From TrEMBL:
Coiled coil: none
Gene3D superfamilies in the record: 2,3-Dihydroxybiphenyl 1,2-Dioxygenase, domain 1
Superkingdom of this protein's organism: Bacteria
InterPro entries, alphabetized: Glyas_Bleomycin-R_OHBP_Dase (IPR029068), Glyas_Fos-R_dOase_dom (IPR004360), VOC_core (IPR037523)
Name the UniProt record assigns to this protein: VOC family protein
Pfam family of the protein (one): Glyoxalase
Domain VOC: residue ranges: 1-126
PROSITE patterns in UniProt: VOC
Length: 129
């Protein structure tokens, strides 16, 4: 149903490096950047995805703090673990280590981190272990 999502960040270079590191274990990479020269506005945007950019960060609006939750689908539990380790190494704060969250459903395996702007970013796998 959702084609893409995006949100503002307070420090573009820091967040670009952060998301390059934490999205790689999930198979996401930087697909494109939109520069101020391209839009005629003083804003930068980075689109991540698997072929098509569907996860965007950018500048130009005040960053939303402490209210955004994004859950990213992981292909398996090992990718959730790798996401979590990459996020911590890139400067994220722990918000729930990898593990089963059976209160959601028996195979819900997720990990939660807080990104540099205070957003709660999750990687989740719904497949049986």
């Amino acid at each position: 149903m959702i084609d893409h999502l995006g949100f503002s960040v307070s420090d573009y270079a820091r967040s670009l490096a952060f998301y390059k590191a934490v999205l790689a274990p999930l198979g996401y990479g930087l697909v494109m950047e939109v520069t101020p020269e391209m839009t005629g506005k003083d804003a930068r945007h980075a689109g991540f995805g698997k072929g098509k950019p569907d996860f965007w960060i950018g500048t130009g609006a005040e960053a939303t703090r402490n209210g955004l939750h994004v859950a990213l689908q992981a292909p398996d539990r090992a990718a959730v673990d790798a996401f979590y380790q990459a996020a911590l190494a890139a400067g994220a704060r722990d918000n729930g280590p990898p593990g089963l969250r059976s209160h959601y459903h028996p195979d819900y395996y997720g990990a939660f981190v807080i990104d540099p702007d205070g957003h709660n970013i999750e990687a989740v796998c719904h497949a049986p272990g």
